[in-house]
């Protein structure tokens, strides 16, 4: 009995709803080819009525529909159009159409149990006037037996894959075309249409944020930004179907699929696998035996196709993988999207405006007690849409974030939240704005922990978190700094007001009385440091008083994950010295490569925490400094003149920069319109040895194409290369 | 390999956070009894320092703490106090305490890795001044070896079960009491405290909404409201621990457990089992073989204890079960809560302001095409709290709803949403206000579906949905009508403005041009109908013109679930007649009991849809009428004079009103403070037979107590009885 109770039967919709919830685009029932009216009165005599001989939906890449709808790039033989914009179809009947006598319509259906009142069944009649919020249709031409129709889907139509029929009305019943999947029509969002809620009024921006299938993701450290190329691949074969599958798998009701706010919110939950068996499994552990290391991917296509084919979450991702896959999803459905990177992002901090760092009585950092972390960088997405669900003025770019966060809300979804609302501290408007506000505006609070367990805040750094927010420039491979979209300049009255507003909406902040500044401390590294090299960490101290000062300084060197989490401490050093009145002194701390090189994690960064005391306790000095180690690039060389469908080759080259063997090395090469993803494995690359890999392929698309390569092994990650190839006809 | 990929290792926090997310109240590490400072310099000499002989936390029901904190009703031997209010403890040392020399503190800890900056580790020192947002402590008395402390938890303290230690500081280290679970302290929300965010400034309301452990739930039909007694049982043995377990099982981080907004939101997800293996499995199918039928429960206690003991969702619940269990959770933690019932609740309608009803060309109802449903009633919860996360003015009662809804957001959680914001149509403020607004303000839109599949709206009824919202009166067993908290009066300017605001925030509405009213139709049933009886449905028609009118009327009688979903049609009848100029005519439709009695579902209601046409198409008539069938009550008779701990008995009596056997009948009897839940089974009760069940028990609590009984079998549900027993000392 107890066992019986543990296995209740699967839930049923009986008693709960007349029709089960319709949340699958894939589900369908075919309509009958003849649908009789009432009780048949003898065999119907249909010879006087229109018979449908042919339906041509002009779906080829070089025909009018895909060209005008900016969908000719999709590697998909079916018709793809955008809502709110007319497309043409040609119907051939057995005789000329007579408007006085003949009555026919074109029917569009999506999902199971389609209904007019839900927008899942739309019959369109010729010369049906275009009304806002409705579909329209007019006859462009009627010549001989052929009628050319111009059909305009409603600008707020459901987005997805529709089935299409042509139906002729007769007094005996409806005569209809047979179900033919070749006539399926994808309807997408339309940034080119003023009435669409994703309308974007700039051609260059539409080209970048909807049509560009290759991009750049920024990472590293604020003073040393690294770039990583990424193949979004939203037009590749199977990707559009995979995106629809994602919504089906989320059991998202079809009626919600007209609203980019709801779609982007569902996707922020579905891109990560937490809760809902979404697309990508997050892992930050450095152990990726069961899948692909987050650093090894070159693009989103393999991830989405793998997920759609298996239905099983794909291993593994970290923030830029979640953001990149999300970006593919958005652009594929026609929602303008971009990946942005926030440098020094406050994470998992419960939407409070503080990140707590715990020091011991001597001012030394205590990693075992410091729960909060500041990520060296964090990637999320922005998508462009109107926000009719919140007050006027908050439309435009919206933050969505698919990286699973550990927040007090217990939710693994985030956004959309208006960027403008975040800038003004108006975090009372949905969704999840407090968390995003905190990611870019938190203070770092240093606590001193006494031996008896008590703690008090001793210093607040208001500048460290959210140092800058970057994305790729429109139309070119450059950095676009969009920090000013998120924050008013530091120290301005507007900034103070925005933070005050956020605090009013219940974000918690720690206020302390600052100690007087007696000594200034500055930390730097002379030049960029190549991985495997020794270097000096330079500390500069300046006495701002006329008195002599005694300093005790602790330098902790840690290997950190990019999440700010410490893996190991590789050095710990203390200095003790005096500064004369107004004296400036420079101390160099020598960092040997052999101390760190065997302990590195995938993102080769060293994290220094420098703390200290002036004259025992007059002033506590604190600084954090991240040193990203430089990693060599892959070089990609092209041979031959690239021509459509003609064989050419590229060569990838790489030299091991470390003083040890690289083992189990994988290289991934990907170029949409050029080749499918290729992966090659090398069991060993000795020190200073080079590998050379030549790959032959035939370009399948014209114009500027990009080829991205990525090398990954346990000792060395984040080795990329990219090249541009212009394919001639 | 493929198989390997399908089973990735469990996620780890390595690389993601220094300390795993702390989301379990149950987790703990003991603190050492002696915590040495630094490197030991020989054996510590502790004889000069305070030694702790005894810690008395005055936790008995008749001692000061539980009395003053209104927690003496909890059947729990541990100390239970409310935040923001002082409680006392007595410490006995080996000698008198000397404030000049001795240093000690009382430590409160919750969960793993407790930290001061997270509010999970709180050391309290004697004479620690009370600061807002902090804990306070003062010495009330210091006499001989005994120190009496008054400790005040912060008014925004985390709510849950804390471990307590007393620690004495010495130069050698910390000397501490051993871990003793008997000194655990539960800290709850405090509606009696002005600074608490659940502060409620009315003693009668606090007595009802926090301290009353028995209540009434309303159901049935707006013109025929039924009542159902319910044992909330928030003070029963094990219930408080079960509520903490619910939050642990939701993996709710401890840091969020100070905020009633977050706790009530998490609970709205956890009370239903969808997504997260929450407490109750919803089922509306009428088949409850694998568990207890939703109608058979008498209270929340069994459900919560069963869930906490097994960790497995409990079968089965419907809206009032979800709402009742939620209410127990809220009151148990100290959040003022109540169950409310909305009559004619628009459901699963994607937050649109319309419920679509599809009629055929003749005006006859088409159930197979009508997806939307209007529930005869729907129960949800209100909880009382301030809302610092949204603009000022929206604190007070908040709607939360744990019944899983099928919305386009794909979420099985709802609220908290401000009742005041809903009334004013300010649905842009979190959480989920659009759905709740639609539940009480939707229009019923009648669509006429043509043979060719096209549809047009022909009539809108703005009055049907959200006819009234009821809850139990404060302090007595009467109905409190709170419709005016949710809606302005129908037809007022304020009502129009509120709906306009909601439409502005993107709720969709259907506007149609109304047809002229030619004929009025009114539907009624003469008296209340006892289950198993025949009756007349009376239709009254009034011609409002000077012309003769021809009417065709369809009457559909359906057995419906309370969700408005049709199980079967049990009668279908059409009438055709004429109305002379200005004539009023009454038509009676006879409804035979044998037609419906064997088809009834658990809530014995009949649903009539009356539609028709005047003069072919001048006007479409539509009406829906719900006839709830009256069900006999259980009678409960008391024998003996009820005295504390003295045996007494009650007798439950019931007579089968149907003309057939009742089979597999279960009766449940429950009375907190009187007896544990008892269940008795009867295999058969023949027609007109009576059962008599006498049960002996000893009351364990004083004062007014309630005993609730509930009978359930396949042919007859919702048979309740309740009696009040005054227990003398």
In short:
2 copies of one chain form a homodimer. Chain A is built from 12 helices and 39 strands.
- The multimeric state of the shown protein is homodimer
Question: How would you state the average pLDDT of chain A, rounded?
Answer: 91
Q: What name is given to the CATH topology of the largest domain in chain A?
A: Coagulation Factor XIII, Chain A, domain 2
CATH class of the largest domain in chain A, anyone?
Alpha Beta
Number of helices of chain A: 12
Task: Kindly estimate the percentage of residues of chain A that lie in beta strands according to DSSP.
Answer: 35-45%
Q: How far is the N terminus from the C terminus of chain A?
A: 73 Å
Task: Please give the radius of gyration of chain A in angstroms.
Answer: 30 Å
> By CATH's scheme, which homologous superfamily of the largest domain in chain A applies?
Transglutaminase-like
Helix percentage range of chain A: 10-25%
Instruction: Return the domain count of chain A.
Output: 4
Biggest interchain interface, per-side counts: A-B, 99 and 99 residues
Q: Which structural category fits the helices and strands of chain A? A: mainly beta
Low-confidence stretches of chain A: 1-5
The biggest beta sheet of chain A is recorded as: 7 strands, mixed
Form type of chain A? elongated
CATH-defined architecture of the largest domain in chain A:
Alpha-Beta Complex
How many strand units of chain A?
39
């Amino acid at each position: 009995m107890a066992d019986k109770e543990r296995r209740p039967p699967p839930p049923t919709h009986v008693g709960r709803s007349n029709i089960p919830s319709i949340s699958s685009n894939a589900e369908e029932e075919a309509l009958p080819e003849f649908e009789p009216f009432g009780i048949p009165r003898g065999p119907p005599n249909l010879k006087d009525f229109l018979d449908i001989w042919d339906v041509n939906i002009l779906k080829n890449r070089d025909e009018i529909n895909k060209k005008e709808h900016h969908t000719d790039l999709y590697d998909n033989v079916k018709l793809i159009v955008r809502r709110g914009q007319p497309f043409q179809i040609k119907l051939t009947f057995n005789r000329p159409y007579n408007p006085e006598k003949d009555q026919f319509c074109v029917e569009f259906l999506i999902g199971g149990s389609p209904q007019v009142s839900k927008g899942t069944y739309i019959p369109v009649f010729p010369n049906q006037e275009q009304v806002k919020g409705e579909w329209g249709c007019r006859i462009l031409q009627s010549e001989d037996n052929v009628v050319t129709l111009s059909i305009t889907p409603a600008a707020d139509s459901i987005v997805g894959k529709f089935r299409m029929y042509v139906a002729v009305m007769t007094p005996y019943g409806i005569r209809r075309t047979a179900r033919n999947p070749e006539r399926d029509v994808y309807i997408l969002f339309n940034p080119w249409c003023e009435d669409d809620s994703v309308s974007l009024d700039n051609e260059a921006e539409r080209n970048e944020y909807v049509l560009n299938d290759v991009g750049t993701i920024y990472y590293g450290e604020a003073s040393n930004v690294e770039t990583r190329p990424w193949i979004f691949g939203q037009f590749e074969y199977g990707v559009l179907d995979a995106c629809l599958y994602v919504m089906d798998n989320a059991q998202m009701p079809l009626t919600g699929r007209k609203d980019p706010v709801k779609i982007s919110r569902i996707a922020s939950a579905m891109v990560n696998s937490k809760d809902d068996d979404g697309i990508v499994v997050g892992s930050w552990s450095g152990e990726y035996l069961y899948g692909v290391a987050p650093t090894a991917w070159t693009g989103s296509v393999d991830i989405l196709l793998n997920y759609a084919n298996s239905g099983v979450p794909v291993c593994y991702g970290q923030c830029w993988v979640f953001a990149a896959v999300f970006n593919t999803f958005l652009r594929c459905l026609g929602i303008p999207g971009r990946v942005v990177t926030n440098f020094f992002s406050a994470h998992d901090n419960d939407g409070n405006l503080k990140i707590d760092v715990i020091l011991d009585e001597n001012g030394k950092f205590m990693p075992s007690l410091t729960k909060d972390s500041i990520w060296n960088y964090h990637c999320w997405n922005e998508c462009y849409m109107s926000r009719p669900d919140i007050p006027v003025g908050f439309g435009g770019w919206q933050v969505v974030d698919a990286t699973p966060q550990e927040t007090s809300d217990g939710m693994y979804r985030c956004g959309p939240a208006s960027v403008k609302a975040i800038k003004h501290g108006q975090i009372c408007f949905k969704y999840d704005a407090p968390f995003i506000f905190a990611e870019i505006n938190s203070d770092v609070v240093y606590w001193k922990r006494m031996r008896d367990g008590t703690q008090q805040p001793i210093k607040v750094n208001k500048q460290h978190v959210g140092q800058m927010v970057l994305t790729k420039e429109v139309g070119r491979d450059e950095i676009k700094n969009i920090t000013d979209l998120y924050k008013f300049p530091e120290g301005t009255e507007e900034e103070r007001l925005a933070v005050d507003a956020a605090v009013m909406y219940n974000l918690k902040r720690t206020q302390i009385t600052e100690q007087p500044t007696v000594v200034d401390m500055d930390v730097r590294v002379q030049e960029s440091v190549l991985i495997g090299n020794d270097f000096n960490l330079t500390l500069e101290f300046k006495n701002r008083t006329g008195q002599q000062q005694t300093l005790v300084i602790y330098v902790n060197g840690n290997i950190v994950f990019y999440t700010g989490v410490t893996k190991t401490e590789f050095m710990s050093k203390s200095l003790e010295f005096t500064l004369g009145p107004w004296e400036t002194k420079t101390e160099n701390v020598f960092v040997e490569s052999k101390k760190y090189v065997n302990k590195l994690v995938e993102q080769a960064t060293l994290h220094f925490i420098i703390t200290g005391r002036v004259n025992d306790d007059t002033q506590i000095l604190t600084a954090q400094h991240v040193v990203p180690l430089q990693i060599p690039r892959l070089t990609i060389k092209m041979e031959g003149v690239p021509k459509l469908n003609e064989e050419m080759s590229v060569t990838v080259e790489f030299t091991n920069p470390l003083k040890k063997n690289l083992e189990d090395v994988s290289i991934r090469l990907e170029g949409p319109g050029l080749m499918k993803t290729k992966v090659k494995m090398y069991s060993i690359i000795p020190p200073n040895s080079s590998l050379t890999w030549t790959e032959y392929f035939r370009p399948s698309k014209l114009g500027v194409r990009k080829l991205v390569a990525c090398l990954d092994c346990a000792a060395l990650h984040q080795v990329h290369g990219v090249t541009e190839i212009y394919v001639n006809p």
